[in-house]
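JOB MANIFEST
job_type = single_chain_structure
chain_count = 1
residues = 254
[input]
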Amino acid sequence: MKVGLFIPCYIDQFFPHVGMATVEVLERYGATVDYPTGQTCCGQPMANTGCTEDARPVAKLFLDVFESYEYVVAPSGSCVAMVRHHFHDLLPDDPRVDKVGSRTFELCEFLTDVLEIDSIEGEFPHRVGLHNACHGLRELRLGKPSEQMATPFNKVEKLLAGLEGIELVQLERTDECCGFGGTFAVAEEAVSCRMGLDRLADHKSAGAEVIASADMSCLMHLGGLARRKKLPLKLMHVAEILAQSTKTQPTPTP
């Protein structure tokens, strides 16, 4: 199985270790991972800000780069949601949108839905609070949103729960936004920070040592607030946890 690895901008620039952890996890389960160097952004920042004309050529380049791959996998629910659900708005007449979009997956849903992995072998003896990022939850359906009356499920939680020694703490509000929202965090700084501090308080109250998420953008926002408040919390992408979950005493990274 050949996988085209799509790495979001902020992971490429600020958290490259998350990209490497993603490769390690995919290769552990038999995927042949290729990183096409011609890739750039998916266009989400421009599209969210209303700069449609600027986002359109970026989306077209994404299709040019990834159309030949059997699968495209990214450690980001928001970027995958952009490709799968919003490229139609940018390129309504491009037949490749459906083709590439249907083969583009967030890491955890690729593991559960494509590779059909029920449990990850490994050990992570820490108290973990799961932050369910908005795009992954409500656009990719990685879990059941709290506003829906349906059978509960959560693909990210399912993968983490199989690790030995892990304790997934129970939050009061399991799927509330962290306040990042891309350019929203700049345009509405005070509201964004207040929302983030509220989420940190929920995790801290639940006794979390580590906050985990499938979206590094949320963790970047929460991590910055945690450092400013000097809170004893570690922020880790799910890919990092899965990559480190060996029998050799994994240690959360700051």
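[summary]
The chain has a mean pLDDT of 94.
Residues 75 and 107 are 5 Å apart (CA to CA).
exit_status = 0
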